Amino acid sequence: MSQEEEPLEGIPVLGYAGGPPIPRPQAGQRPAFNARRRFMWSGEHLFRIYLTPEFIYFIRIGGARNQEQLMFGVLIGYVLAKGRREKEVARAEMNDGKYLEVLLQEHKRNHVFPTADISDVVIEKAGWGSGNPAKFSFKAKGERKRITMMFDRIEDVHIAIRRLPQMFPGTVVKIEFNERKKKYVKARS
């Protein structure tokens, strides 16, 4: 008999605890993009947003942007901001191998909504002078106000425009990418 035994025909291979393992999504196996959400008393937080068929996970990977420039001036702030961006990328990569349920426990601002509780998803321009390429907002069951999140990068907007309408068929996209200007502009009616 060979070193690797083949399972007997007709008998299922059992996992731990006497049954097949329950599929649990890992962060790196899910479509994801980054966006910022502002909280009343704790400022803004950068979240990695993971989409699953049942849930939408918001996992914090960083804090406020440009905060360093306000506190220390432009030159020192630039150096500190570069380090912050590198930490955010490293945090997102580190999270890729973890289960989403585990990530929820790692920061008090991490949260999750059932996809069935999300409605009225809108992707639109962020507004004049905001410095963001776009924003998206939605209503969530149990939340008093509409939740609005800002995108920092165009790449995240691309992913959101591709993925959110697949999960939420009523998604309204009010922007389009202008190749000449290399930015998102208000969509022509």
Protein described:
This protein is α+β, with helices and mostly antiparallel strands. The chain has a single domain, classed as PH-domain like (Roll), CATH 2.30.29.30. The protein is 25% helix and 31% strand. The chain is built from 4 helices and 10 strands; from the N terminus they run βββαααββββαβββ. The protein has an 8-stranded mixed β-sheet with strand order 4-3-2-1-7-6-5-8. The chain has a two-stranded antiparallel ribbon with strand order 9-10. 20% of the residues are buried. The model is unreliable at 1-8 and 10-22 (pLDDT under 50).
Mind sketching the topology for me?
Layout: E1 32-39, E2 43-51, E3 55-62, H1 67-72, H2 74-95, H3 100-104, E4 111-114, E5 118-124, E6 134-140, E7 147-151, H4 154-167, E8 172-173, E9 175-178, E10 183-186
Parallel strand pairs: 5-8
Antiparallel strand pairs: 1-2, 1-7, 2-3, 3-4, 5-6, 6-7, 9-10
Per CATH, the architecture is Roll
Q: Characterize the main sheet.
A: 8 strands, mixed
Helix content: 10-25%
Strand order of the largest sheet: 4-3-2-1-7-6-5-8
Q: What's the mean pLDDT score?
A: 78
Strand content: 25-35%
CATH topology: PH-domain like
Rg, rounded, reads 20 Å
N-C termini distance: 70 Å
Shape: globular
How many separate domains make up the residues? 1
- Count of beta strands: 10
